[in-house]
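Whiteboard transcription, Tuesday session. T.W. wrote the C-alpha cells on the left side:
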C-alpha cells in the first residue's frame, strides 16, 4: 500500500523547513507519493520536485488557496497543477496582495494588548511580507515568551474574538476552483472538519464546490480526529467526492501529525489518485 501525503508546507509559505528538507523528511518517514502545498504560493515547487525525484519519491505539484466563504476562511488544495499556468500565477499573486497591510494591522492590534514590535518580529520568521501569515506572528509571540507554543497562541490571540485578529478577504470559492482546473489540476477541500459551519452551511459549501467542478475532500488529515475520518468518509460517499489524505505538516514541534504518519483512507472510498499513473 502506498504511503501518500498530499498536504504540507515549507518556509516558502508558513512552514519551518525549506522545500528540500521537507522532501527529505517525507522520504525518511516512508512517503511514496508527496505534494508540497504552500499557501497561495508555488515558488517552492521546482526545488521540491527536484528533491523528490532525487530521493525516488513520486512528486505531485500542489498549492493551497485561501478562500473566503460565508464569512470564514476555507482552504482549497490544488493537486497535479501546472505551476506555470498564467491564470493560476496571476490569481495567486492577487490573493497574496494585502498580506503586508493585514500584517501591520495585526501588529497594531497586538500592541494594544502589550505586545510591541510584532510586525518586525513576525517578519524575522517569514522574510517576505507578501507571505506574512498569523503563524509567523504566533512564532514571534512564542519567541518573546508570551505563550509556550503556537497552539497556546491561537487559543488566546489571532483568532476571531481574540486580540490581534484581523480578517482578510481572500479569493472566492469559484475563483480558486477555476484557477486549479484551468491549470489542469484537481480541487480538494482541505480539512473540512476545521470549519465552524452549521450542517446547512456545510451542505451549501459542498454543493457549491461540486457545482464549480471541485472533485475531492480531505478525509484523513492531521487536522481531523479519528472520528472525523469516518465522518468525512461518509460525506465523500454522499456527495460523490474523491478522497484525499495529507498531514498538513508545518514543522517539527508545531504539527499534530508528522509527514507520512497518518493511517490509510477508510475503506470504500475512491482515492484522489485512483487514476494517476503511480
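and on the right, the sequence the group agreed on:
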Amino acid at each position: 500500500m502506498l504511503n501518500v501525503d498530499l498536504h504540507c508546507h515549507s518556509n516558502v509559505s508558513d512552514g519551518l523547513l525549506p522545500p528540500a528538507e521537507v522532501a527529505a523528511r517525507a522520504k525518511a518517514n516512508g512517503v511514496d507519493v508527496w505534494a508540497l502545498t504552500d499557501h497561495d504560493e508555488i515558488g517552492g515547487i521546482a526545488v521540491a520536485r527536484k528533491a523528490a525525484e532525487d530521493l525516488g519519491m513520486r512528486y505531485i505539484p500542489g498549492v493551497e488557496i485561501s478562500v473566503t466563504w460565508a464569512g470564514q476562511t476555507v482552504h482549497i488544495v490544488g493537486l497535479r497543477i501546472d505551476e506555470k499556468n498564467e491564470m493560476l500565477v496571476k490569481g495567486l499573486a492577487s490573493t497574496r496582495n494585502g498580506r503586508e497591510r493585514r500584517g501591520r494591522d495585526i501588529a497594531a492590534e497586538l500592541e494594544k494588548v502589550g505586545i510591541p514590535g510584532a510586525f518586525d518580529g513576525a517578519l524575522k520568521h517569514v522574510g517576505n511580507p507578501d507571505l506574512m501569515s498569523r503563524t509567523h506572528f504566533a512564532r514571534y509571540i512564542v519567541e518573546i515568551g508570551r505563550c509556550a507554543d503556537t497552539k497556546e497562541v491561537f487559543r488566546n490571540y489571532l483568532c476571531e474574538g481574540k486580540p490581534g485578529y484581523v480578517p482578510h478577504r481572500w479569493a472566492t470559492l469559484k475563483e480558486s476552483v477555476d484557477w486549479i482546473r484551468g491549470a489542469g489540476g484537481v480541487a480538494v477541500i482541505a480539512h473540512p472538519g476545521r470549519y465552524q459551519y452549521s450542517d446547512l452551511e456545510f451542505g451549501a459549501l459542498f454543493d457549491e464546490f461540486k457545482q464549480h467542478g471541485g472533485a475531492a475532500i480531505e478525509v484523513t488529515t492531521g487536522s481531523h480526529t479519528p472520528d472525523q475520518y469516518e465522518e468525512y468518509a461518509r460525506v465523500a460517499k454522499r456527495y460523490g467526492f474523491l478522497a484525499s489524505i495529507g498531514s498538513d505538516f508545518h514543522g517539527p514541534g508545531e504539527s499534530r501529525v508528522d509527514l507520512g504518519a497518518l493511517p490509510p483512507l477508510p475503506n470504500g472510498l475512491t482515492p484522489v489518485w485512483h487514476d494517476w499513473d503511480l
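Someone added at the bottom: The radius of gyration is 18 Å.
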